[in-house]
Every structure is written in structure tokens, then in C-alpha cells.
Amino acid sequence: DGGITQSPKYLFRKEGQNVTLSCEQNLNHDAMYWYRQDPGQGLRLIYYSQIVNDFQKGDIAEGYSVSREKKESFPLTVTSAQKNPTAFYLCASSQTGGPDTQYFGPGTRLTVL
Amino acid sequence: AQSVTQLGSHVSVSEGALVLLRCNYSSSVPPYLFWYVQYPNQGLQLLLKYTSAATLVKGINGFEAEFKKSETSFHLTKPSAHMSDAAEYFCAVSEERAGTALIFGKGTTLSVSS
Question: CB–CB of B51 and A50 under 8 A?
């Protein structure tokens, strides 16, 4: 089945540690996205990539980093510089960038202890 | 700049009643508009999408939305609510040009009582 997988589903981190969230898609989509979701805030864009080896900052990129070395993979690293990292993180992909339908993974819930 | 406003963070209806979730957008060019649904601790699922074809768009699970340019609105409706419709709903907007991502509203939580 084609789709987007995110791992792990739940992640716990101590303050000061970097963590990497995985996102893989087998839809052959060019564009991939990372969103952060907090209660009552909707989805806020962290980073997006329209093509391999290229990515752009979204609205809340500070404290996060990404890479796009392969078309199917777009890992997100939450660094110790992110002041309030506890949130639900959603990865998405679309055929191309712009107004295409985005398909979402199941999400990773990160909790900082 | 694009923006989306969802009126009402929480809507409650009885089973069998009309569902109306409101979405207003701001865009300098003809927009693409989306409604997504999210069940607890899951990702988002596309309900329907407007892409400048018919102004009345039908989606999955009996939902539909009407694009009204004069009101800059894209409200989501369903004639008869079902218990399984209880979820969070997000409206999103994008513009027809490269390099743009979706802009999401803050969401509306729909509760359905028996």
C-alpha cells in the first residue's frame, strides 16, 4: 500500500537532547512537508521541500533542521535550541509543491521530560 | 498574504442535525481551498478540495462545501450528523503558483451527541 509512515509514534526526550523524527513516503511525490500541531493552534509549517537536496524554512523553523537526500525521506531534527518542543508533529507529501493535495502521515507525539 | 479563519473553535450538534462549519479565507488571487478531518492522535485526511471548477464541491462521508467568492467563504456542511463525524476539522488555502504551501486554519472540533 502506498502511503506515508512516521516513526516513532511516541517519543520522549530529555531537555538538551537532539532528536530525529522519521518520515518516509512511497507515493513517488516530489514535495514533502513538516508541520507542528499544538492545541488550538492548528498546523504550523516548519520546513518544506519541493525537490531532493532542496528545502525552505516555514513559519516556525527556529530550533529545527531537515535534510532531503532521497526523494522518499524527509527527516526532521528537533534540536536543543527549540525552546518548547513538546507537540504533535505531522509529515505530509504532495505530487508537486503548490496547491496539490497533501497526504499526511499518522504523526509523532514528542514529549520533553 | 493568504490566511484562513475558522469561526468557532468548537461546534456541538445532535445526531441527525445539520452540520455547518465555517471557513473564510483571504487571498490575492483565485485560491485553492481544502477541508481536512483529523481523528484523535491521527494524521489529517482530505474531505474535499476546490480548484476553480464547480463552486459546490462534494466530498467523502456525505460532506460538501460551497465556494462563495463574494463572501470569501468555503463553509463545510453535512445534512445529517452521525456520531462518527466527531473529530477536528481544518480548512486550508493555497494559491496556484509554485513554491506555496497550504495555510491552515486553527481548526474546529465537532462534537455529536445522541
Answer: no
